[in-house]
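Quick one - inputs below.
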Amino acid sequence: MKEKLILCVSVLSLFTASCKKDPLNNLTEDESRIYITNYDTSANFETYKTFSIADSVAVISNNQLVAHERSSADAQFIAAFINALEGRGYTRVNRDQDPDLGLALSRVTNTTTSLVSYNDYGGYYGGYWDPYYWDYPGYGYSFPTYYGVYESSETAFMADIFDLKNAEQNNQIRAVWSGMIRGSGIFNTTSIESQVAALFTQSPYLKAQ
Amino acid sequence: MKSAKYIVTMFLASFFFLGTNAQQGTKKFEINYTVGVPTGNLKNVISQTSWRGGEGALMFGLTDQLSLGLQAGYQDFYQKFPREIISEAGSDISAVITNSIQVIPVMIKAKYNLASTASIQPFISLAAGANLVTYQKFYGEFVDDKNSLGFAAQPSAGIHIPIGSAKQSGFHLAAGYNYMPFKYNDADGLSHATIKAGFTINLND
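Output:
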């Protein structure tokens, strides 16, 4: 009877363990990405006519500015933002020509380190090594306290538009728009233009007229 | 029409076909493949039918008709939606949203066999117990998740077709309703209809 019961429970456990449809395995790179935009609701974007953009991208790692770089992907992002803003009626000018808006691009990388305990291994034996494999069906695992460390890192791309036109009057450089791209394949050069387009599609208010 | 009457007559007659399959004192394991059909508020989160589920129950025969036991199940609900823009004042997020919900009810189950000696045995059952819920809402690859332990109850009805000379094992087909209260984010209840097919193994042999 015991053998029959173990067999039945094992069959059921194996079946259910392999039964989950994993959302992450069912996403394309494009689907994995999210586009977040925020804007100052008091800003009237039609009052701005010109913009300037830096020719490099700020590299920010764990909240620290590391460098300014211009990789081929960075250059594509810069070009895509210029095209998008010009498409919305803004005119690109040099920094010394009193632009109404300033556009800054950043690569933001955050690395986190986490601790994981292996004490739960026995709870997941169905997915890894069933005690049946060692010829001890029905036995449970017992572990001393094992810990491991894993590190994960995520890079996002950010764009900020600042109000330079009213900086003196406001006594500050006020951000009026920000866009962020998170997910997989952000720096895949074949998709950079469509990623920037996605940020502007959800920002219809961002236009000169 | 004549053949339909014949089928109905044979079906009813099968309830009176006597065998030697006493249930009292037996120990049986029921194993089921289950299909989950979202109902009520669950349809607002996931409307797609789940074809990924299973269930097992260890049942002890108290009388020839009544058995009592422990049932554990699993159902995986999943649905991916086309990219959409979620807007709030001053903020917009564009994401492909995927909802993924797993329920693992572990319940005490009572089962009543309406014709324990027939060749086709209708039965009704009622189970109630705890429900382990894993709720995940993915915005692209970023997840908002919650695990919780709640309540679950499952009334069901079906038919059992005994096989073998002792007629202690057999196949069965049933339909039921999983009542599963749960509240988080946009989810307000995970109740769903369930259709199950499986077999019963006699553990007394």
